[in-house]
Amino acid sequence: MEAFCKGLSEIWENRWLTNNGPLLQRFRNRLGIFFETDSLCLFNNGTQALQIALRGMEISGEVITTPFTFVATAHALTWNNIQPVFVDIEPEYYTIDPEKVEAAITPRTTAILAVHVYGHPCRLNALADIAKRYNLKLIYDAAHAFGMKIEGQNIAHYGDVSMFSFHATKLFHSSEGGMLVFQKAALKETFDFLKNFGFKNEIEVVSAGTNAKMNELQALMGIQVLSYFQEIKEKQKRIAELYRSRLQEVPGILLPPPPCLEVDYNFGYMPIEVEREKFGITRDELYKRLKEWNVFARRYFYPLICDYLCYRHLPVKDPLPVARRVADRILTLPIYDSLELSDVETICDIIRDLHSMGEKGRVGN
Ligand SMILES: Cc1ncc(COP(=O)(O)O)c(C=O)c1O
Question: Does ligand 1 lie within 6 Å of residue 115's CB atom?
């Protein structure tokens, strides 16, 4: 808090609120060290970052993506007049199924837009192999994956470009904000023009850009949160481990498999699946009952994107059996660094009690 107020005074003294100010430059430098690259750009949010990535890379036609994600993933395509082609996900970690991706490729396909759902890494090698064989761009929506590493390598270094969201609900945030990390250094200039109306200099406009710049207040917030990132992650790890140990024995509560050894997770989300037959009540009933106890879980992601009114007209060839089942059963439990472990225990006790009551209710039926 004190450091944040000091930063506010600095902004005040600088008389510089936006347009590549000194705090933005500092934030970008610190992220460059964190991600071990200069090939990154900052934006006012993740959605616009993704839109600009697609525009800057001249993606067109059809892009294969997942229906089990936040709606912004598909919207970024639609805003660029690109048709999203939804294919199914894998049952364990809820990421896009590479076999389904390959089956959906047509002559109009130009890219794959995969999502590291809840920070679970996609099948990186399989997707890279498909992208290479079919000459497709590989774009990752890494909105949930800040700070993740695979065998010591930051997740941002897979694929052609990765988008990170710094929204306030994320493990790492700048109140609102977004970032692209990319492999081809030349893209930096293209993205920088696009986020600033296409201005090259005071009198030259080289592309029909938009306004997607991060401002100084956002950068200040990002700098502050970055300095606590490791601490936040450790706390969330303890919370996730407690949830796991308390819920793994509850009949009808399914947890994703434990973290793989080669992956350094960020513990940003705590997803569970509710199997009605074994748990006793449905996911929606559990969601409502938790709310009565002031426990605000989220049905994240439900409904599937292809079921939203604005996407229903799209042809979906894949029947999406896994995504449909998961969307009907998924619930993400509260997880944030100031959540007390005693509160996690209480939440787990409520869930266990609701299971027992559901059991009794079924016996009574
Ligand atoms: C998977 C996913 N993609 C995209 C976004 C959009 O990011 P933002 O809210 O920063 O625009 C979000 C988050 O909000 C998200 O969870």
Answer: yes
CB distance 164 to 119 below 8 Å:
no
Q: What is the structure's pLDDT at 364? A: 46
pLDDT, one tens digit per residue, over 194-246 is 999 999 999 999 999 999 999 999 999 999 999 999 999 999 999 999 999 99
Residue 165 contacts residue 46 (beta carbons within 8 Å): yes
Mean pLDDT of 337-364: 86
Q: Tell me if 72 CB under 6 Å of ligand 1.
A: yes
- φ, ψ of residue 196 to 5 degrees: the values are -125, 55
pLDDT digits 0-9 by tens, 113-139: 999 999 999 999 999 999 999 999 999
Asked whether 66 lines ligand 1 (CB < 6 A), one says no
Q: Which two tokens stand for residue 56?
A: 């800057």
Q: Output the furthest CA–CA distance in the chain (Å, rounded).
A: 77
pLDDT tops 90 at residue 259? no
* CA angle (141 as vertex; 136, 142 as ends), nearest 5: 125
178 — pLDDT class (breaks 50, 70, 90): very high
Instruction: Check pLDDT > 80 for residue 78.
Output: yes
Cα(343) to centroid of ligand 1, in Å?
27
| Cβ neighbours around 303 below 10 Å, total | 14
Q: Answer positive or negative: Cα dihedral of 194, 180, 257, 126.
A: positive
Question: What radius of gyration, in Å, describes the C-alpha atoms of the chain?
Answer: 21
Which of 165, 176, 300 to mutate to test ligand 1, by most ligand atoms within 8 A of the CB atom?
A: 165
Q: Say what the pLDDT of residue 356 is.
A: 84
Q: Which of 224, 175, 226, 167 is nearest to 6 (CA)?
A: 224
| Separation between Cα atoms, residue 246 and residue 134, nearest integer Å | 45
Angle ∠(344,347,362) on CA atoms, nearest 5:
150
**Quick one: which of 49, 46, 45, 42 has its CA closest to 20?**
42
Vertex 29: Cα angle to 25 and 30 (nearest 5): 120
Average pLDDT over the chain reads: 96
- Pocket of ligand 1 contains residue 49 by CB under 6 Å: no
